[in-house]
Amino acid sequence: MTTEVGSETEVKKEPEKAEEQPAAPEPEPPATTQTDEAAEQSANESPALATDSAEAPAEAKENQEEAQPADNATAQEGEDSPASPPASEKKGISRFLPPWLKRQKSQSTVGPKESQATPKEEGGVVPVKEEVEKAEQAKAEQTSSPTAAEPQVEEEKVNGEAEPEQKEEVNSEEKEEENHSTGSAETQPAKEEKAVEESQEKSAVEEENKETEEGGEKKKDEEESLKPEGGHYFIKSPLKLTKKVKMVMCHVTMLDGSQFPCEVEKRAKGQYLFFKVCEALNLLEKDYFGLSYKDNADQTCWLDPTKEIKRQIRNASWQLAFNVKFYPPDPSQLTEDITRYLLCLQLRQDIASGRLPCSFVTHSLLGSYSLQAELGDHDPDEQRLDYISDLQFAPSQTKEMEEKVVELHKTHRGMTPAQADTQFLENAKKLSMYGVDLHHAKDSEGVDIMLGVCANGLLIYKDRLRINRFAWPKILKISYKRSNFYIKIRPGETELFESTVGFKLPNHRSAKRVWKVCVENHTFFRLMTPEAPTKAKFLTLGSKFRYSGRTQAQTRQASTLIDRPAPYFERTSSKRISRSLDGAPVINVIEAQDSAPTSVENGREPGLELSSDSKSIFMFPLSFSSSSNSSLPPILDTISELDVLSDISEDDPLSWGQLDGDGDYPGIWVPDFTPQQHADSLAAAEHYHHQPLEASPPPSPLTCSSEPQEGSPVQAKDAAQSRLGFSLLGMLTGLRLGLLPFSLLDEDGYLCFPSLPQDCAACLVPAGLQHYLPLSSPSVVPSFMFILALLLSASQSLALAFLLAMPLALSICYLEPKAPVPAHAPVATPCLDTHTDTHTFLLQEELCDQLAWALLPQSHDIVPLGGAAWNQAFPSSISPFLSPRQKNIPTTKTTQVEEEPSEGAAATPTEGTEMKRDEPDSSQQDLDKTQEDVLKHQASISELKRSFMEATPEPRPSQWEKRLTASPATSLRLQAQGRSPPPRTQEPLPDLTVDTVAKSSDDKQKSDEATWQAAEVEIEETVVVEEIRVAPKGSVTITTPEVVVTPVAVETEVEKPKDEVIEEVKEEVKEEQKRPVSVSSDSHSESEEEEAGEYHPQVTVSASVDQIKEEPEEEEKEEAKDHEEPEQVAEPEPLSEVEEEAKPAPAVVEETPVAETETAPVAEAPEEEEESTEDILVTPHEAPYGHAEAPEDQPSLVALEEEEEEEPRVNGDASHAETERLPQVICCSEPPVVKTEMVTISDTFAAQKMEIATKEVPIVHTETKTITYEAAQLDGSGDGEPGVLMTAQTITSESLCTTTTTHITKTLKGGLSETRIEKRIVITGDSDIDHDQALAQAIKEAKEQHPDMSVTRVVVHKETELAEEGED
Amino acid sequence: MAGVMAGFGNFTHAVVRAIPSSLAKEALRMNVSDVDLEKAQREHEVYVGVLKQKLGLEVIELPADESLPDCVFVEDAAVVCGDTALITRPGAESRRKETEAMRRALKELGLNIVEMSDENATLDGGDVLFTGREFFVGLSKRTNQRGAEILADAFKDYAVSTVPVTDGLHLKSFCSMGGPGLIVIGSSEPAQKALKIMQQMSDHRYDKLTVPDDIAANTIYMNLPGKGHVLLHCTPEEFPESAKVFEKLKDHMLIPVSNMEKVKVDGALTCCSVLINMKAKV
């Protein structure tokens, strides 16, 4: 940082100069509105902004806004650029201006050039309508040809000394601006530009404010930070030269009301800031605390420590509050007085704000203890009442109370502050509302109630009365869908079925917030260890959100290890506290909630959210759709969307009966629909999968032609496809891209909107998809967003087609494995058929009931849209679940298709999935069943299926998780791919599998397994698992032959999104990309990664290789850096590429080189990793020879286990919990699944966790390790390049911290179909622990899914950023 | 140190009211029955005597009001917890005025009086079960949601959960506290159902003492200095089976109190007194 200072100062100077000098001339572009400085900055930044905007999809709204500006900016840039006349003018100005401007110009010029070049390169791929698109393309180009871009950057640097820096700065600024309004000076300019374009006045005001407030400091900091980072980047990889670390000033309101200013990296995760705060407080027992912030709706949200702050805090100011997050039920068990003191401060706030109601007597008593703690013994000589009146003991305190306080204070004589605090807590903890987090909601009847989340469970209040209580053990599942929050209740002793209680929250966000709080509280208070995140899973449909911190049990254990003299801390005066209360970070929950609800009505908000999301989605969606779902994940919004989806899936039953919501809706619609059917979630998941698949197909039809699909054998399938296409079209329609007929769109709408289930009525009623979209509500919106984003990115028809094709391709791939020959058919329709078949099989066996139910609901929704076929299918499916299913197959297919589209659409799909789940649930209910067991089984099965289907696909639980997580895009993809559909497809193909399935029909899991096995036998699959920390998921788009042409465009698009994603995921990468230069230089790193993904699209196999290569380079560079904590970390974080079978020769070849380079660097950790990898490899070898048979799986599993063991140490986090988890309580439904899978790993992880916990020391160092494990077999196994490329799919899923991109390429060799799966997992997490787990899990899942598969290569690229966090 | 929720069952004062002669004929009752007024009055004298002499409570005896035939059942007129007294709004219109005397008496004791002024609210003290940690309010014919809400507002320290009372007059017609964390519950289906609801609604764990007779489940528990756990319960003459159950409570000072006549007008043991702990006042 210090070294950088100089540069920073320079920069500052420069801007100032620029402001002074050029202000007058510049006015031409934006100057009119803005001040000279602003104008200059804007001009300079404009290009960067444009690029940034294009790059950073995460910032949906902002981006949206920015995007427009960016376009303008780009236009401006174009002008600025020498090539364009306006540019010449600017140049003239620039002459006058300081180097700064020139640099900017140069940058801008570069940008335009690149953009121009990109078009050329891409050729006729797609004409870029918008400048933004151009910028993106430029980025893409850069990414595609990083080397070229790099040189350019270097040149620029040479030419203009400051140019690179400027670029970086610009990028960072832009990023910051996008992310945070508060931003630094840099951000200000960007804002200014935008503002100028949009609203000059606003921008000016903001700028001024920012400048006045923190501008100087921030600028300096940012500059400094940027410079150092840039240096790092250089070290790491030449490509990343431009990257700089921007610093942002955070203001944390402490519990004593003081402000704690903290400068953090712009991309710092919440954890970093939290640790900083805890460090400042000298707090060790920090697990009870958290940082909160106010969202746009003025709702208090908890800062997720595992996510970047900027992604969570959307509003301008980084104003946070340090608060108690988990109120210890027994404060006396806290180890340190300081912890109790902080808890006291929190409680005083709670009491004074009315959040914690208490009686007069209690107010007085607690107040007296506060006095004793802060003032000591009562001094009769003092005028107590005077000072007391300055203190706040209650929301409204009277003189009487103050007198009482003093009276009581007298009785505390001799009590030490610590004792007084203890007494305070002993009384406060008994208050009924102690630790109860209240949320406004409505019950099924629309009655206003309050949901209280606490350590023991969920409390339901009506007014002040407790009308119900659901202890954690009674809750089987927690989910949310849209604005509905559902809890699935364990059946009572005399009850046969589970019941689901639904609550209507003011809006989606509030529903998610409640859900998250529940997950966190349950995990913290109820579990011994946190649930293992599902990072490793290939596709995560639902929200992956999990409480990642320590549980209370762990915290207590850790507290016992605290061995330090009681830290001295000064108790602040109550006055201060009272003040803090006044201004306070602490929000009156009730008030806030009230405001929120009032502000947004369920129906209305969704639409609004959708719109907003859609915008954001557009930005990101493109990236997502095209290449990087990962990009979406990074975005919080996207995640939320995913969550929504997941939620929906879970909530399906409810959603159907949505409003009925409360309670037990075992059979609200059709008996099956009831929420109770959650157990059927598995089935639902399958449905989801199906849907996704179908959804994917539709897109292709859209691009190619919707008609063919229709023509496809299965009408239903076709319909589904068309629907999907329609959905896409609907999405597009927004974009005005709609190719499909409106009628189709309508159908699509249903499909998409099945997710809407709640809005079923609306679905039925309405017409256009667009209508549905708004109706669909948030969940739907996200999906649409993705689609839109994809479309936007593609902008061109080709791109769209590609996007559409992608899903289709994916679906096809899945199908193929099962039935190689038929599936192979490139045509989407055939694929669909196969899918449908598989689906049907699955349905028949396992899912039949579920599907039927799902179909029914869908049918209901669809009815208007759906053709006779749908209706037919539904009826059949409904009444006779099992047998009918076959008959219904088409219908099921259609339903699936519908679902898929919805999934693809994000919101709708999820809904559909949920619906399906519900249905299945109902079926389960019917079956009756040990629902729990069934659920567990299903979950596990679903997981397996998901894994099989798509590396990315997550288990059904994942769907549940989806709720928790997730970027919409990823969710969508995951849902579509990862969900049951893939497995199903596999199953269907092999008749044998079907038989097996039928046998095991009772046990869905069994059936799934059987199907898997069958699939395995029949098809050899190569799975390449790439885990790249640094590179976000450069989701590799594997283009189907059909799509091939489009791929390029898509790739570029993808790259952009990837960049965005990467930025989000990886701070470093992000920084680089974000920088204005990033378009040229910054984009490189990200682009590279992305490019790799892109490469795949071009040449399926080769592409993957390229990606790998690129990564390795980075890794190598990074490797140069020291690995502090070595070893295991590397595996998880880094890219792990596992190529199972060599058949895809190209991939193997490519990989091998990478592996070589990569392997060398890592020393300590690598060894371990290598061993693990070797194990893995061994299994693969076997697999290749034998081509996927059951036996192989076992070995692989063993290897995995071994790996896991090793990994755990590093990871040490979450997996443990699984074993420990209480079967009873299933947070997101995933738990069961996790349990099954995780068990082996758990121990090791636990060990790791333990280590970590004990260490507690955050790692600040930035280390990069690259470990590559290759299977010797690769060469042999790789049968050379296979012949015909059957299909290629790219699935990207994002969870909070993980972005998983799975590329599935199917090739037909000599009649044998090979499936090559490349998985790139980017884990962005503060803790290294997860990575190992993720890797192990990914491999494990892959193996499970593809028993035959051999892991040919695992490349782990680990970047550990340990900032200078002096954590304790 | 009187803290929050300290000293459950520790009472110093009791408010009782004499039986008006109108009770025999005019008092409300769920079942037709003839009440022997003299017998009832003797019972009541014994009851008050136990509180006063045997337990040493300071008993405030309110004069009977002939216009208020049910005035002896003072419990319904007020809910006292800590130093706060909620003057109820009885569900039976004929009993509304019973609160006046109670209000005066409690005011004289220096309690914080909280009025239930809402016209839509009704609450009988007999529907309020205070466990020491929380309130359960039976939603019965006499008590409605609004009444419970007001009670919740009056006692903010405590959770107030509502329990539907489908059978019986009051919540405490089939249950009561038999000790800290011990709920005495009748064995009837409605009683057991209500208990389950209470258990589900509570964050705390309660032991239960099931007695064969619902009415017998109404007891008066006190924890008095020098006497320990004291339980006033039904006599073996009234409910022999239930009395046997109480006799199993080895740690309690068991005081059988006859209530044969008052039961005829739905009066349980707890109905006839309002217990107050003035020492608990902070």
UniProtKB/TrEMBL annotation, chain A:
Annotated localization: Cytoplasm, Cytoskeleton
Biased composition (Basic and acidic residues): 9-20, 119-139, 154-180, 189-230, 913-936, 1000-1009, 1053-1075
GO MF terms, alphabetically ordered: actin binding; structural molecule activity
Major localization class: cytoplasm
Chain intervals with Acidic residues compositional bias: 1127-1140, 1165-1174
Entries under SMART domains matching the protein: B41, FA, FERM_C
Entry-linked InterPro entries: Band_4.1_C, Band_41_domain, Ez/rad/moesin-like, FA, FERM/acyl-CoA-bd_prot_sf, FERM_2, FERM_central, FERM_CS
Name of the molecule in the record: FERM domain-containing protein
Biological process per Gene Ontology, one example term: actomyosin structure organization
FERM domain: residues covered: 248-529
Source taxonomy: Eukaryota, Metazoa, Chordata, Craniata, Vertebrata
Compositionally biased spans, kind Low complexity: 1144-1164
Taxonomic superkingdom: Eukaryota
One GO cellular component term: plasma membrane
From TrEMBL, chain B:
Positions of substrate binding: L28, D70, E75, D76, R95, R142, V265
Active site location: H170 (proton donor), C271 (nucleophile)
GO CC terms: mitochondrion
Biological process per Gene Ontology, one example term: arginine metabolic process
Keyword Methyltransferase listed: no
Family to which this protein belongs: Belongs to the DDAH family.
Name under which the protein is recorded: Dimethylargininase
